[in-house]
From TrEMBL:
Tagged with keyword Methyltransferase: no
InterPro entries, per database record: SusD-like_N, SusD_RagB_dom, TPR-like_helical_dom_sf
Compartments reported by the entry: Cell outer membrane
Main location: membrane
Designated name of the protein: RagB/SusD family nutrient uptake outer membrane protein
Stated family: Belongs to the SusD family.
Length: 453
């Protein structure tokens, strides 16, 4: 009889779950050969296998510990755009106070959920290369998987990477960079050191470039060329590469009737490029946490300052701050099928505006900013300088993407955390702590903690 250590058992269980190969305890397993690894010989062999793997790769993003609730919520709690009023005081509550510690369970769960997504994407990429069926849309499948992997690493860097001043600075901290799947316990599951921010950024750009080259334009619940271009623009803006951000954003096809369309929330948003769809069996957790009934947790409220941030007449106020205890972006407490809009065309327009302002094109910046202001029921901007335009653009981003997890990363990339949140005096907390277990498993010798924690 083989004896396993607790760590080996935990690693094996996590491995099976990341590949979607765990079997529920209530199911009967007939003639199942015990194995500690998943052999590539019995991996994906048909286009149907790859199609199922692609569904699994998207499903990882929908986890309640990821974009199904936690990742955007963590971001908006620490930025102050969501206020905490619930019972999870040791997880969400301390994040809202900017007092998160390495042993915070939610931070650990979110880190793990993102790496689950990375491993599924890596496995799909590897296995898709082995399928030679002419009917298999190999390039499109791999392109979507690589775009998802880029999205995951963008989010890891956003929370845990860079420097206290922002992103793209010398000596920026990265995260462990895994570009091949973990399919067997052993060398593949050994801890690897954190890559530099620059190395992770290079991998992100390579993945998105592949996706852009191999996908068609469009929108929906799958990543298209349009969404990949928008993600590349998002990343370059975050890295302060404004000319590149402008170049990629301007390649995104214009959404028809965008400038004249009525502003909608959730499923009513008309500018979605990539949307995570939920249903009664694959549920979103947003309304469950925002509302008290039926059966909701009633954990969150709009932040204390976000209502006053809306200019007079702003149509988004009714969406962002409906009452003192509700928000109209997520409303489906019964079916819990609110979608999450991962990429919207409004972001593209504001990226064009900000990148143009930062590169001296005041006319383009003003035109695109006014498109967003007009949709929101506001008069044209009065700003005439690049600095004034950027200030207005950042406000529009905050109001346009409330509760979509964007504001904290705008504060970080513009090095304005301490200005917007003056009580946040410990600069090291601009980066989140790595989960304690990631550091302890190697005694801090392989994976090092972010400084200050």
């Amino acid at each position: 009889m083989n004896l396993f250590t607790i760590r080996q058992l935990a690693t094996r269980s996590a491995l099976l779950l990341t590949l979607g190969l765990a079997v529920g305890s209530c199911e009967k397993a007939v003639n199942v050969e015990p194995s500690n690894s998943v052999s590539s010989d019995t991996g994906f062999t048909t286009k149907e296998d790859a199609a199922a793997g692609l569904l699994g790769a998207y499903d990882a993003v929908q986890s309640s510990d990821y974009a199904g609730l936690a990742f955007p919520t963590i971001s908006d709690l620490i930025s102050g755009d969501i206020s905490f009023r619930g019972t999870f005081t040791t997880t969400y509550g301390v994040i809202a106070q900017n007092l998160a510690a390495p042993d915070n369970i939610q931070i650990g769960n979110t880190w793990n959920a993102i790496y689950v997504g990375i491993n599924r994407a890596n496995y799909l990429i590897q296995q898709s290369e082995l399928i030679n069926d002419p009917a298999f849309a190999k390039q499109s499948t791999i392109a979507q998987a690589r775009a998802l992997r880029a999205f995951h690493y963008m989010n890891l860097l956003a929370l845990w990477g860079g420097t206290p001043q922002g992103y793209g600075y010398p000596n920026g901290l990265g995260v462990p960079l895994r570009l091949t799947p973990t399919t067997a316990i052993g060398t593949e599951t050994e801890a690897i050191p954190r890559a530099t921010e620059a190395a992770v950024a290079e991998a992100i750009r390579a993945d998105l470039d592949y996706a852009i080259a191999n996908l068609a334009v469009g929108s929906g619940t799958r990543i298209t060329k349009s969404a990949a271009l928008a993600l590349r623009a998002r990343f370059e803006l975050r890295m302060r590469q404004y000319a590149d951000a402008l170049k990629f954003a301007q390649q995104v096809p214009v959404v028809a009737n965008f400038s004249s369309a009525t502003i909608g929330a959730g499923s009513a948003a008309t500018d979605v490029l990539w949307q995570l769809a939920f249903n009664n069996t694959d549920q979103s957790q947003y309304a469950f946490y925002w509302y008290p009934s039926p059966g909701g947790r009633d954990e969150f409220d709009p932040g204390t300052a976000i209502s006053a941030a809306h200019p007079t007449g702003d149509r988004r106020l009714a969406i962002n701050v409906l009452t003192s205890s509700t928000t109209a972006k997520y409303t489906q407490t019964a079916n819990r099928d609110d979608p999450f809009n991962a990429v919207r065309y409004a972001e593209v327009v504001l990226t064009i505006a900000e990148a143009a302002a930062q590169t001296g094109d005041i006319a383009t910046a003003t035109t695109n900013l006014n498109i967003i202001r007009s949709r929101a029921g506001l008069a044209n901007t009065t700003a005439t300088t690049a600095a004034g335009l950027v200030t207005d653009i950042l406000l529009q981003r905050r109001l346009e993407f409330a509760y979509e997890g964007m504001y904290w990363y705008d504060l970080r990339r513009t090095n304005t955390v301490q200005i917007a949140r003056p009580t946040y005096q410990e600069l090291y907390r601009n980066l989140f702590p790595l989960p304690l277990r990631e550091v302890q498993l190697t005694n801090g010798l392989v994976i090092t903690q972010n400084p200050g924690y």
